[in-house]
């Protein structure tokens, strides 16, 4: 289960980090290269016989095809071609080191899934167009990652930065700390993944390294076994927009979040946070639009004010929190004016599916009508009058806008309604006329029965059996109303 989930997160991360739309080579691509073979023959480089040269996508795919790097001659032949391939994939090749690469206009270099344990200083200095570098799933250690690894081209007196490098993936390596100057040659980095490296703590050196990344927009720090973050870690990268903290060991919300003023998207999935209440509520993060906290195996309560300070929140995803039983009526609202009205975030999508919720009060959100997605499926809902708003208004509304999300919203209580679709309970109320006619039939039957019973009662009373007669009547009535109730809801 955990592995599957991890893969989903990785996939999601990969998609987030792949704006150029490059996917693994599949059959259609192979086919395309076959049909392109006439064009390929015009390419004199023999690299295209070893690897797949996909001219349309400007990609050379050498994944699982090499035992070593290109030779000098092969690079030369590539440099002499009229076209420049913007993307080169060299994944799954058992490469152990990265040499100084020759001048080439490659923009996206994929070196993931090798055995790379060392990188020559200045390895990328001649790749001045390099924008995206994927070094994930290798054997890189903190020692191997020296600042000069990312040294740029030498001009006159000094090394220039690798100014085009925007995206760096260091995920799934053996790193536990970053050199404090690691990013000195790549100051324009916008996306960084440190995912699945066992840091355990963000030490001062790592914090200093990150503080230098003033252009950073996306930071993936998932599965790093972190329990806490330094309070000031986001003081440097102040334009950070997306932060992924999935699969760490946070028991409370990191205080550091209050420094990430420009954060738009936050993912806190799979952390052992037990509740959001008291001091442990979200600080003012006025730019935050997207918050995801799913697979939180310990969370049972979301208290008052938990999300009140997230004034711009539009998407809240709290799915698959199996213990989540209590969501406070004031979790989202905020008393700003001190008057009669409360303020609410402008929610557009709310996911509460696969939790342990029984009721959803009307006051939880004010503008239910503004929600385009409301997912309440797979919860043990209580089909009782105090939950009337959800049953009679929300679920029929969900049915009319997103019918898929209206099925599998089922009652768990009371027992006689257990397993019944809430939508069916709601539609039962359309047929009020039917149920009132049943009541009338009931009354008529009761009256008809009452005449002989009364006569008999008088007879019994006279004989001193009054109590018995009364009890029997009550039992009859209970039985009657029970059947009519069941009939109404089991159609
Ligand atoms: C890499 O090494 C593994 C095991 O040593 C081997 O099975 C695999 O074929 C190698 N890959 C390549 C591209 O040579
Ligand atoms: C990289 O470029 C420098 C000049 O900028 C050159 O001296 C060096 O030989 C090049 N390295 C390779 C491996 O081509
Ligand atoms: C809230 O969202 C709106 C619309 O997306 C945006 O114009 C506004 O600047 C945001 N507020 C803050 C504090 O970021
Ligand atoms: C779900 O909530 C009920 C009370 O409504 C509680 O008895 C039960 O233990 C909860 N289940 C989990 C998995 O927390
Ligand atoms: C907001 O707070 C004020 C004063 O604390 C209180 O009088 C008012 O009733 C509150 N409004 C709501 C809607 O709770
Ligand atoms: C749910 O919506 C469908 C149309 O999408 C409608 O036919 C059906 O009657 C609705 N069910 C109820 C119970 O309102």
TrEMBL record:
Superkingdom in the source lineage: Eukaryota
PROSITE patterns: LRR
Pfam families referenced in this protein's UniProt entry, alphabetically: LRR_8 (PF13855)
Residues annotated as signal peptide: 1-25
TM stretches of this protein: 438-461
Keywords: Leucine-rich repeat, Membrane, Repeat, Signal, Transmembrane, Transmembrane helix
InterPro entries in the record: Leu-rich_rpt (IPR001611), Leu-rich_rpt_typical-subtyp (IPR003591), LRR_dom_sf (IPR032675)
PANTHER family assigned: IG(IMMUNOGLOBULIN) AND LRR(LEUCINE RICH REPEAT) DOMAINS (PTHR24366), LEUCINE RICH REPEAT CONTAINING 53 (PTHR24366:SF96)
Protein name per UniProt: Leucine-rich repeat-containing protein 15
Species per Swiss-Prot/TrEMBL record: Drosophila hydei
Gene designation per UniProt: LOC111603852
